[in-house]
Predict the 3D structure of the following.
Amino acid sequence: MATVREATFELFRAHGMTVTFGNPGSTELPMLADFPEDLSYVLGLQELVVVGMADGYAQASGRPTHVNLHTAPGVGNAVGGIFNAQTNKSPLVITAGQQVRAHITMEANLTNRDATLGPEPYVKWSHEPPRAADVPAAIARAIYHATLPPRGPAFVSVPMDDWDKDADQDRTDSAIRRVVNPLAVPDPAALAQVASALEAARNPVLVAGPEIDASGGWHHAIALAERQRLPVWATPAPGGGRLGFPESHPNFVGILPPGIGAVSETLKAHDLVLVAGSSVFPYYPYIPGRLLADGSQLIAITNDPREVARAPMGDALLGDVALGLQRLVELVGESERPGPHPRPDPGEPPEADPLSGSQAMAALADAWPRDGIAVVETPSSTLALRNRLRLSEPGSYYFSSSGGLGFGISAAVGVQLAQAGRPVVCILGEGSAQYGITALWTAVAYKVPVTFLVLRNQEYMILKWFAAFEQVSGAPGLDLPGLDVAAVARAYGMQAREVSGREELTEALRDEIAADDGPRLIQVDIASGMWLE
Ligand SMILES: Cc1ncc(C[n+]2csc(CCOP(=O)(O)OP(=O)(O)O)c2C)c(N)n1
């Protein structure tokens, strides 16, 4: 008879879950006892970064990923990261320790009271098993909740005296043997109608969202756009946690603006708007206007029923995005429409001292390796980054689509662990860096060779931009004098350097991206401003 601990590790192995991201406390130690050599444990020093690392790892590996947290305070610290993982549709299987069962009713110290309620709004399933023997089956169920579409985190609270108890062997064996295929094809008849609508449209357009990359639909999206000569917009940047289309492709025309009125205005010339793998739409800020221009029809393909239900307009097909796009490519003919006008090259940014965000991104573009992966948390330079890097390989861009900070450094560590063969560059504002700063230690301790690029402008620039937009004057707390991320990185044991000027930055990026013996950090001062190009 296997113990709960042995049965749980067997289950992890069966699902390819070989890495646990955690921060332990006394209530988690029984799970970690005699930790098997074929599994690995990655320590994060605070729970927001533990979840962020697992989020990056899960997205970049495509596999369910285990997170282990310390009862109520650990889960509390983690909630911002769980919220990010929910929006990123990241398949996290989160366990948290709980008091000994005999202690729960008397609410002894460290009892996680109402353990399932804390994370409930941010997970697909939240549970504390009624019997120790059920723990592996509960974790199996959490794995399915996390990985069935739409993917997302699931949570199980485990009393600390459960791990040495006997598991329910029959249920465990059967949980390990089950094979579940999570993919559903959108209704073939509805797909045929979409194909006819595309062919009949005068001026159709594709809006590409993050699920194209996550579902493996990248090449189908390209094939569809090329066959039908579709201009392709990326979904508005705040919701674009991943790219849905190569941004140097001649059919790619740009990133949709994020407000309601601005989206319909941008798309008004199109009689058919096909949205693939995005919510309709990740609007922010509120810019009122028509949802859709007269004469435009919108059809979304998504694997997320909640996205369908909450969309304020348009028709929808539910099902796997990659399979849907693949079928559409088979159904549509070659179009004779004139192709779209490619986006103009951004050209050389004007000289500035200190550097502008656009110049810093131009330097990054000059040093960029073809197989590079960008993990991005640099609010005032994100659009300049997208415009200048024009990333065009699948799995090359990760961004916190919820807007919650603390994702960048931590996710970069997770992405690099999952994609050991590709260079990961994490581009950060110095304000954003603070939320995930302790993940620098994990990068050093586990020799994870991420290159961190910190753009230092001594302020929360994007909030100053929002203040102007919201007509707020006199708000305190928007300046950040004197933050030195390079010094903090050194304190964590990381090699870090400060550079200035475009050439020096380009050289430093080339050197550090090529280094693969551990993480490096480059800090550069940039001028105040929003860098859109
Ligand atoms: C967890 C969390 N807290 C606060 C915010 C609000 N917020 C959004 S951007 C930002 C400032 C980011 O500053 P920095 O990284 O220096 O970027 P800059 O705007 O200067 O480019 C803040 C505080 C947030 N998004 N998430």
Observations:
- The chain has 21 helices and 18 strands.
- The first helix runs from residue 4 to 14.
- The pocket of thiamine diphosphate is lined by residues 80, 378-380, 403-406, 429-432, 435, 457, 459-463 (CB under 6 Å).
- The two ends are 62 Å apart (CA to CA).
